[in-house]
Specification:
The protein has 213 residues and is an alpha/beta fold. The chain has helices spanning 4-10, 31-42, 57-68, 86-93, 106-118, 149-164, and strands at 13-15, 25-27, 76-80, 98-102, 124-126, 139-143, 168-173, 184-193, 203-211. The longest helix is centred in the last third of the chain and has 16 residues, at 149-164.
Length: 213
Amino acid sequence: MTNPHEFVRANTALMTPPLVPEVKLHLATEVLPLWRLTEDELQERGVPPPYWAFAWAGGQALARYVLDHPDIVGGAVLDFGSGSGLVAIAAAMAGATSILAADIDHFATAAIELNAQANGFEIDTTNDDLIDGYCGWDTILVGDMCYERPLAERLLAWLRACAAQGTTVLLGDPGRSYFPKSGLEKLAGYQVQVTRDLEDREIRDTGVYRLMG
């Protein structure tokens, strides 16, 4: 298999997300060609889409909120399901000094490292599944992770337990099917420009929420 860092470099272009122009990311210009290349590279069909190659609405909104409210990321910060690393990079720009970007996709962690470098930062990454593990962060940031029921239910149970222990848990979400309907405080709302290759519209109303314990 090609080195993941080389794969990311070869199949993306350095661009800025519409809502967060301060951040440069290696992003795909088209969905299907990169998806097929990813399947060929892994020699497996039906692999998940290359989530790391796109700036999703929930992540853009959460990154925007973090940059506009830098006090929210004091202490140790976890960016869960980091994808491109957009939210982790925003946390670094906001002054967070201890950041871990977690994503189980090895291509994602390569993208996070390259994107961090493109913005002048070094960010620690992990491919470990952290759900149900020790909650040792002051702030957990989660962008656009409620698109699949089993994952959302498992993740939210863990995040609520973390919030009950005193962790600040912030979620960015554009109305995904399995986003919780209660136990939230809405902090901000944004209209986020997205691509029709990925969404059913060009603008998504997206909120940033604090999860209650």
